Amino acid sequence: MNKRIAVVAAAAASVLMVAGCSSSSDGKKGDKPGEKPGSAADRQAQEYRDAAKKDRAKMLEVAVTFQKADGLHDAETACRLMTDAGRHGSDGSMESCVKFYTPLKPDVRASEEKSSYSVTGDPVEVGPIGDHQAGTGVMVTRQYLYEGRTKYYRTALRMVKVRGAWLVDQEEEIYDSEMKHSSPVSSALMRSH
């Protein structure tokens, strides 16, 4: 057993020594913004970080697009951006979800079109609950005017990746009392119904 550990340790040391020798000798490649990192491992790590940033941006874009569509009762868009478990309606189908949304009255639609939406805070990991799988929680804030005063409406969205696409699996209003929690998004998405 000790012989096996010694062999593994020697192999690990050899790999580390070779990896250390293969890095850039000048140590300057990749030090400036926009400059490619020197070693293959550095380039791979940078590519991973860049991909993660793009993926996060796509998730946030889907969250805001969904929330706008939901507010405007754009049923086709909202339902397309939801998982079967997250869809409104009786059975999680696209058809039942589209029927769930009723057209807005013209004055309500005009007011809703003036609303602005933004992601507030950082996304948080949320565990599974009920029919909802583990995912990433995002707070989307709607800012709008009501009787001449600026108002805010906050929604927690559970974002999950399905076949490579970000979708909304759950949406919950974030109550004012939950804004005192360390994670209002987790609090809203983990509420039992």
Describe the protein:
The protein is α+β, with helices and mostly antiparallel strands and 193 residues long. The protein has one domain: Nuclear Transport Factor 2, Chain: A (Roll). Helices cover 41% and strands 24% of the residues. The N terminus is likely disordered.
Protein topology:
Blueprint: H1 2-21, H2 40-72, H3 75-80, H4 94-100, H5 106-113, E1 116-126, E2 135-146, E3 149-162, E4 165-173, H6 184-189
Antiparallel strand pairs: 1-2, 2-3, 3-4
Protein name: Lipoprotein
Region (Disordered): 21-52
Biased composition (Basic and acidic residues): 26-35
Key structural traits:
alpha+beta, Nuclear Transport Factor 2, Chain: A, disordered N terminus, Lipoprotein, signal
Short description:
Residues 21-52 are annotated as: Disordered. This protein is an alpha+beta fold.
Q: Tell me the total number of β-strands.
A: 4
Count of structural domains: 1
The percent of residues in helical segments reads: 40-55%
Mean pLDDT: 83
State the CATH topology: Nuclear Transport Factor 2, Chain: A
Biggest β-sheet, characterized?
A: 4 strands, antiparallel
Share of β-strand residues: 15-25%
Gross CATH architecture: Roll
- What's the CATH class label? Alpha Beta
The radius of gyration is 24 Å
Which term fits the overall shape? Answer: globular
Can you count the helices? Answer: 6
Q: What class would the helix/strand composition place it in?
A: alpha+beta
State the end-to-end distance: 54 Å
Signal peptide: 1-24
Protein name: Lipoprotein
Region (Disordered): 21-52
Keywords: Signal
